[in-house]
Design a protein that fits this description.
α1 packs across α7 (126-138) and α5 (87-93) crosses α8. β4, α6 and β5 form a beta-alpha-beta unit. It is built from 9 helices and 5 strands. It has a 3-stranded parallel sheet, sandwiched between helices. Strands 1-2 form a two-stranded parallel ribbon. The termini are far apart. The model has no long low-confidence stretch (mean pLDDT 92). It has helices spanning 3-18, 31-34, 56-61, 74-80, 87-93, 107-115, 126-138, 140-157, 160-175, and strands at residues 25-28, 45-48, 66-69, 98-101, 119-121.
């Protein structure tokens, strides 16, 4: 559900790099899921295998920007419309700014925009991604604000202990006689 959008992000990064900007995109995924990106043949786009689970937190916190891409076609948008990927809270807690590239009506894009934890690009196309990347690269204060806000939202809304307790309370209330 993110193949085309990731391609557009990779093309934008490749073009920015070719234009002299110091930018790279590191993609961590199984080889069979990212092989289509090898056609870019840009040194700015690096495809790595999945990270070691023990190093994920350090990897997320040690990068300049994380991306959550979603396809813009109707089928993909319908499939992901109400879901939040499990990686989103991990991205958020890392305090690393997040670029959400998705249709505006997708839950992740709405959540990121409403809570201001991610920079949302809801216009499709390489040019929109290029403008967003350039803005984020040129504005360290914006990146800092996004990262801090993402972490604050993650702590408030995605802490496992809090979520379990709230879920238990909802289940208990639902099972109570009226």
């Amino acid at each position: 559900m993110s193949r085309e959008s990731l391609w557009e992000i990779a093309r934008a990064v490749a073009r920015l790099s070719a234009d002299g900007m110091d930018v790279q995109l590191w993609i961590h995924s199984p080889a069979h899921e990212s092989a289509y990106l090898r056609d870019l043949s840009s040194p700015a786009v690096r495809i790595e295998g999945p990270p070691d689970p023990k190093s994920i937190a350090r990897l997320l916190a040690g990068t300049a920007l994380l991306v959550l891409p979603y396809n813009f076609d109707a089928r993909s948008a319908r499939y992901i419309r109400l879901s939040l990927p499990t990686k989103a809270p991990a991205y958020m807690i890392s305090a690393t700014p997040v670029l959400v590239y998705a249709p505006a009506d997708v839950a992740t894009a709405r959540y990121a925009a409403r809570e201001r934890w991610g920079y949302v690009v809801s216009s499709r196309g390489e040019q929109a991604v290029t403008l967003a990347l350039t803005r984020l690269m040129d504005d360290p204060d914006l990146r800092e604000r996004l990262g801090r806000q993402a972490q604050a939202v993650a702590l408030a809304r995605h802490d496992a202990g809090k979520v379990r307790s709230e879920f238990w309370d909802v289940l208990a209330a639902a099972s109570s006689p009226i």
